[in-house]
């Protein structure tokens, strides 16, 4: 394979299932330029080749099979017939007279077939026989696994490669067509002139896809009008609430399910570009296949999600945990509030010998303690309704365990609202102080920031402004440790909450994209996950040679058995890491779940900018 | 080859040498090799073109500015110590300083009055309002740290002060800011916010207003500079004497060094420039 082949060796692609067939005629494509034969099937009934070619010419009118023809003879010695008998039955002079035909024969007790050729010049120095498993519609043969992102990956997984470029991919395309073509031929052999009955079997599927297409069309019509406003609102909400985000994800999953039935627009555009002559052929080759793995994964992920959710909900209600959950929640909230007030008291007394300003520390502590006080009042207000709220939240688990988890995340963020508030206040204060300090330090050294030149310049300030600036600089500098300490403490608290929420988010994400179905398919039927092809060498079995001699049986020009290598063409499994790493649905690029790099996070923390959820500053626009 | 030629050149008779005057050009064939160097080669070189020769007494006079600033710093520190000991009440200091400033302002009398009054009031008001904050600002920081910080800042003030020379290190605003920072640090050690107010206001007058007055005086009345220097030096020494004789003597020595020893040194080193 790797070495450049100067004189192309003869290659014969032979379907593996035909090895069991009785002797007959080989129908297939002959690629003259490539010096290759692609056998499609073996016809063992007693048709003469002239009749067959008539049929093919008729077929050629209807379907677009490029040059389907009889290209050789298949001889199977196993059934007990001797070679001469077989030859007498099947081979006619008219067939053998035309040159460039092949004879493939499977000797008795052998696995590997042998190749003969009908030709005058015996200049062939060797041949390759490739046995292939006929690919089904959903598992085409292709050179390598798709490299597309997320949902497009799943779609391309089941789609044959477009635009055959290399020699190998051309042959692979023919092989991918072979299943359908064989069906057509077998239908023809049953003496039904029309091919319609074959396609008619899929009427149910087409009905479903029609209905889904209608629904999708309706949805898109509705969407286009309110889309922009809707999208903005939804995006804003999903920034803040995990529950809304989860609803959105579920909607996307349903949409993806619909998309399974619908051919994407890109292909339609492709088709319109193709000239009218070729369009018929393209229809047959590029027809969208049903992405069964994607569909199955989505369905299975949702089913597992929902069934697990219902199980958990029934378990909770069955044991009466819903009543205890309310008490537990109240208890924990009170504990957190008490812990926070203890922490604030401790911070007030300048712990660890920090040089804090006592007055400011007291002031800030009082301010934060007042918030906790407000929080406790709020809790006592909502306590009567808490029972109902808990029930609703737990019931939401019927929609799926992801909903339950996202609700838990929501409850967590509501219960730690005071921590969030503290964090925001402290960060704002710290940020303000830091910025002012930088400006005043420039004033201290008699310089100032020029916005127009975007650089620092030296300015002769007046004495009074210098005096006041230094006064404020001194004050802010001596107050900075106090502010920084409060900021650091509340940032740590906030980061702890964010860590828990991030973990829950990660679990939800995994649940939404559970690769159970692909893994199961990979175990049970790896053919459905084609990720490129491999060739496997089949060891030739030794058999008595003298037993079989075609030249005795019939006429001239048949070569001795060509020295041939026998390969088996396999479909390789897609790497499991790829299956796991690809999400089932697309993620928005500016999604809040998308991570930011560690360095920017650290710099943001140091500057006192809000880390999550962040608001775009006015300057950045 | 070349050395050979030079030798030939040396051997030429004197009359020929005198006849052809050697010129410092390469384009002309003067009968000598390219690397020939005449005696007149370095004649046109100039060394230390812009050297200023200093007179001893003028340097002594100019050093008065340094003495003035050192005295100001000494006075400020002395005032702080007096107030810390309780020997000086803040109101007395404030009244005294304000009267002096007023006299200085009348002397100055060159700018439009209203604007100055406004900014003066603004500064005084803001210091008055902030003085309680300033008082509690450094409570948790130890006194030694404060003193070290103050010393450093006052040294920065002396270093960066504009003594009338042009140098990269001079920064009028930085020097003023350093002294204000030092004054705020010191003031926060005093017992009441009224003390703080008086000290910071005094620092404002001494470090921000007084130097500009001195500069103006020197420009219009050069003879008064000597008088101001003497007064300041004497006041500083007089204020230090009751606190510590040792420091007063040290201050005198510093003044002598700055006014007489350093200029003498400068003049002596002057000869090395040529």
From TrEMBL, chain A:
<dbReference type="InterPro" id="IPR007720">
    <property type="entry name" value="PigQ/GPI1"/>
</dbReference>
<keyword id="KW-0808">Transferase</keyword>
<protein>
    <submittedName>
        <fullName>Phosphatidylinositol N-acetylglucosaminyltransferase subunit Q</fullName>
    </submittedName>
</protein>
<keyword id="KW-0328">Glycosyltransferase</keyword>
<keyword id="KW-0812">Transmembrane</keyword>
<feature type="transmembrane region" description="Helical">
    <location>
        <begin position="463"/>
        <end position="480"/>
    </location>
</feature>
<dbReference type="GO" id="GO:0006506">
    <property type="term" value="P:GPI anchor biosynthetic process"/>
</dbReference>
<dbReference type="Pfam" id="PF05024">
    <property type="entry name" value="Gpi1"/>
</dbReference>
<dbReference type="GO" id="GO:0016757">
    <property type="term" value="F:glycosyltransferase activity"/>
</dbReference>
<feature type="transmembrane region" description="Helical">
    <location>
        <begin position="292"/>
        <end position="317"/>
    </location>
</feature>
<keyword id="KW-1133">Transmembrane helix</keyword>
<dbReference type="GO" id="GO:0016020">
    <property type="term" value="C:membrane"/>
</dbReference>
<keyword id="KW-0472">Membrane</keyword>
<dbReference type="GO" id="GO:0005783">
    <property type="term" value="C:endoplasmic reticulum"/>
</dbReference>
<feature type="transmembrane region" description="Helical">
    <location>
        <begin position="411"/>
        <end position="430"/>
    </location>
</feature>
From TrEMBL, chain B:
<keyword id="KW-0812">Transmembrane</keyword>
<comment type="pathway">
    <text>Glycolipid biosynthesis; glycosylphosphatidylinositol-anchor biosynthesis.</text>
</comment>
<feature type="transmembrane region" description="Helical">
    <location>
        <begin position="88"/>
        <end position="108"/>
    </location>
</feature>
<keyword id="KW-0328">Glycosyltransferase</keyword>
<feature type="transmembrane region" description="Helical">
    <location>
        <begin position="225"/>
        <end position="241"/>
    </location>
</feature>
<keyword id="KW-0472">Membrane</keyword>
<feature type="transmembrane region" description="Helical">
    <location>
        <begin position="56"/>
        <end position="82"/>
    </location>
</feature>
<dbReference type="InterPro" id="IPR009450">
    <property type="entry name" value="Plno_GlcNAc_GPI2"/>
</dbReference>
<protein>
    <submittedName>
        <fullName>Phosphatidylinositol N-acetylglucosaminyltransferase subunit C</fullName>
    </submittedName>
</protein>
<dbReference type="Pfam" id="PF06432">
    <property type="entry name" value="GPI2"/>
</dbReference>
<feature type="transmembrane region" description="Helical">
    <location>
        <begin position="196"/>
        <end position="213"/>
    </location>
</feature>
<keyword id="KW-0337">GPI-anchor biosynthesis</keyword>
<dbReference type="GO" id="GO:0016757">
    <property type="term" value="F:glycosyltransferase activity"/>
</dbReference>
<comment type="similarity">
    <text>Belongs to the PIGC family.</text>
</comment>
<dbReference type="GO" id="GO:0000506">
    <property type="term" value="C:glycosylphosphatidylinositol-N-acetylglucosaminyltransferase (GPI-GnT) complex"/>
</dbReference>
<keyword id="KW-0808">Transferase</keyword>
<feature type="transmembrane region" description="Helical">
    <location>
        <begin position="120"/>
        <end position="138"/>
    </location>
</feature>
<keyword id="KW-1133">Transmembrane helix</keyword>
<dbReference type="GO" id="GO:0006506">
    <property type="term" value="P:GPI anchor biosynthetic process"/>
</dbReference>
<feature type="transmembrane region" description="Helical">
    <location>
        <begin position="247"/>
        <end position="267"/>
    </location>
</feature>
<feature type="transmembrane region" description="Helical">
    <location>
        <begin position="144"/>
        <end position="161"/>
    </location>
</feature>
<feature type="transmembrane region" description="Helical">
    <location>
        <begin position="173"/>
        <end position="190"/>
    </location>
</feature>
